[in-house]
Every structure is written in structure tokens, then in C-alpha cells.
Amino acid sequence: MAGVNNQPNFKPLIDNQSTAQSTELTAAEQAINSSIDSAKNELSAKSDSVKAAVNAAKTLIIDDAKVKTDALLVVVEAAKNAVLADISEKINELQLAVDAPKSPIKSIQRGVVGMAGNGYKTVSIATVDLSKSFIVSSSSSDQHSGLYSVVPFAQLESASAIRVYQRYEARTELSWEVIEYV
Q: Engineered SS bond to 137: which of 1, 37, 47, 154, CB 3.0-4.6 Å?
């Protein structure tokens, strides 16, 4: 029997309690670690899923950009070819203009003057450089005056006029042409 002076021995009770608490703590620690591991695995799985989704989206965006870039390159190539064709056409036009034979004649003026008698007529023309111009004329007449035919003639009177002469009374026509060189 326990006496008044005997102190009870709580050590076995405390040891049992410590063992029970230690077991509970170990179980709780294992549960917490298991939950942490499970959360890590779930997070890792979700992270892998997010990474896969991001990579898939990235691939779609890159593929779409490639398609748009390829389409844009086709449009740019077509525009470049159109511009090059226009430039080539203009170059050909310029080459033809440069290669075209150059005429030494600056201008030609023509006309016909009817004469009805002795005298002259003055005909106005566009101004020419007399040092680079000459006149050609021809006429027909079936009238004669003695030994001479009744033929009118023309000459450059000034830079802006010709004069047609006829010495006999007759009806004639004179065709004329003033040619000016460059």
C-alpha cells in the first residue's frame, strides 16, 4: 500500500503518454508530409499541364505567324515583281526613245498658192531660222508665153513669210514646202 510518504511513480504513465504522443506526432508528421508530397505532385502535374498548354499556345502562335509571314512574303514578292515589270517597261520605253533615229529636220511647212495673173503673193509661215531653212516649190501650167512657160516661183522673204512670184498673166497653182533643219 502506498503510504503517505510514498510518492507515486508517474514515470510509466508519462512514458506511455510520451510514446502515445510521439506516435501521434509521427503519424501527423507523416500525414502532413504525405499531403505536402501530394500537393507537390499535383502542383508538378498542373505545372507540367500549364507548361504543355503554354508550349502548345506558343507553337500555335509561331505557326500562325509563319503562315502570315509566308502569305505576306507572297504579297511582297508579287508587289516587287509588279514594280520590277513597270520599271523594266519604262526602261524599254526610254531605250527605244534613246535608240530612235534622230531626224535632222526640225520642221516642215507646206501649202498651195493660186495665182491669177502677173505679180506676187506673200504667205505667212511659222518662224524659221533662215540660215537652216530652204524652200522647194513646184507648179503646173499648160500656158506658154512665147518661148517661156508660165511658171511661178517662190522664195523665203523673211523668217516668217514666203513670197510667190508670177511674171505672166495666167492661172497657175504653186505647191511649196519650207524645210528647217536642226
A: 154
